[in-house]
Amino acid sequence: MIYIILGILALIYLITQPLLIVIYFKMKYGKRVIIQYYPMLGLLRSLSQSRVINGDAFEAFSVLIKNNRQADILVSNLLFRPLIIFLKPKYYRIIMQQHQDYRKFPMIVDKRLVSKGMLMEGGSKWKQQRNLLGVHFEYNKLINLIPMINDVAQKKLINLPNSIFPAMNLASSITGEVVLRAFFGEDIAKLSLNGQDPSQCVTQLITRFGQLITESRFFQIKRALFEEKVFSLFPRQIEKDLYEMNTIMLDHMKKAIQSRMEKLKNCKNFVHQDYLDVYLDVYLNKNDQMNPPITEDEILQQSITLYFAGTETTANLVTTACYFLAEHQQLQEEIYQEIIEVLNGEQTITAKHLQNLQKVTGFLMECLRLKPVAPMLISKQALKDLYIEDIFIKKGWYVNYMVLSNAQNQEFFQNPKNIDIKRWKADGTLKDSSIDPFAFVPFSAGGRNCIGQYLALIESKIVISKILLLYRLKLNEKIIRTEWIAKITYGLSNQDYLTWEKR
Ligand code: HEM
């Protein structure tokens, strides 16, 4: 009995401890602070509430921040710890420059998936991974992928089963195959998951994880108490299904990697065809020079990292773009005319075409500004006591940055709610060079910015151009409520929002 009472007291202490810190912040910094405390769920609670009330998970935050522009930070909680969300670029600059002082919050609880990949790793392991793959994500290397991206997009777009079709399914099927081909090359055929398109599985996985994370208090409490054992203790059906899907995906990827390894074992001077070759070359031939050495599990998790990080994100951008095009018919026509002019009758989009698609680029940047795929970054836990300007952060607390807050800030963008493609230059940078470069960071910034950002933009530009060459997009009038949801990323729910009329 005494243990039960002690357990309950400990739980009450853990739950209320961040509340005391939230109150301390408000008392110390006054109007510079907005507070959002909810036991356990913290910020996630407001996301699910806002989705229900406004049809948009981040609408409540946008309004809150807009009405409190003087605020520098939003203080909330992440499970049992305080979460300090910075709202101004000057603070974000400091966090990014000192990224080694933090470790990322393991959003995806199942440690078998991405914990050893570049997105989540830290310290010397992360540095090694970034050095190994960074060069292959530079623009001059990525342009070699353009023909493959054209082929994948054309193949998936040419014959849609119906005129009403969820854009998210289509987009993730394209972006998923592109990442898989970039990583696994021709071995992608081995990755069909029990006959299902693997990228559809990833979309399902991420949406279900998102649901669990943002909407299930039961899952949150279990997770806070038992961490990765969350799947084995009192699992509900949704958790069992999710775990099972992860296992199937891991097994398939492992087999594809092992079969490639067998092929390469006897080959001394192979030419790198894809990212898996880059990794296996080091693993098989140079691992004794690596400190720390690469493991097979790391290769597996790196491939899943790129797959996760590269599929949903770009698919959300393409889906948002399709939706806005359907909503703004005149803009759709203007962008379509640009594509016709730039391509001048050619079918395959080249690097030269991409450079000249200025309106398409500006439009995609506006989509990222209005509906950033990552409206907040992954929360980061301080590894030591530190200051961000005058704000004290204790070891163990979490920090984050609200990308969304400045992307729609009148101080940086006039008429922030309007799509204005003229804000952007052809290379995707802002025409107004006086705007703080840290004000709009859809791909994060600094040393841990998105390694795949050029790939994402190349891909989205090709896919949107191909879509408009083939289809005229309209809103499906049968759908009366549009839902912008927080999965792990942020974007439209997977519904038939659009009709696809063949041109
Ligand atoms: C519209 C598309 C995309 C958006 C908006 C996006 C956004 C981001 C953001 C905000 C981060 C920083 C996360 C954080 O630290 O909190 C990030 C990191 C990362 N992204 Fe992307 N991303 C996109 C596409 C891609 C693609 C296509 C790939 C690869 C195929 C990719 C791979 C990664 C990786 C590996 C990291 C971790 C980099 C590191 O920590 O060194 N992303 N992305």
Automatic annotation (TrEMBL):
Q: Which InterPro entries match?
A: Cyt_P450 (IPR001128), Cyt_P450_CS (IPR017972), Cytochrome_P450_Monoox (IPR050196)
* Entries under PROSITE patterns matching the protein: CYTOCHROME_P450
Protein biosynthesis as UniProt keyword = no
Q: Which UniProt keywords apply?
A: Heme, Iron, Membrane, Metal-binding, Monooxygenase, Oxidoreductase, Transmembrane, Transmembrane helix
Could you list the residue ranges forming a coiled coil in this record? none
Q: Give the residue spans that cross the bilayer.
A: 6-25
Identify the Pfam families for this entry.
p450 (PF00067)
State the family named in the UniProt similarity comment for this chain. Belongs to the cytochrome P450 family.
Q: What's the protein called, per UniProt?
A: Cytochrome P450
Source organism of this protein record: Paramecium sonneborni
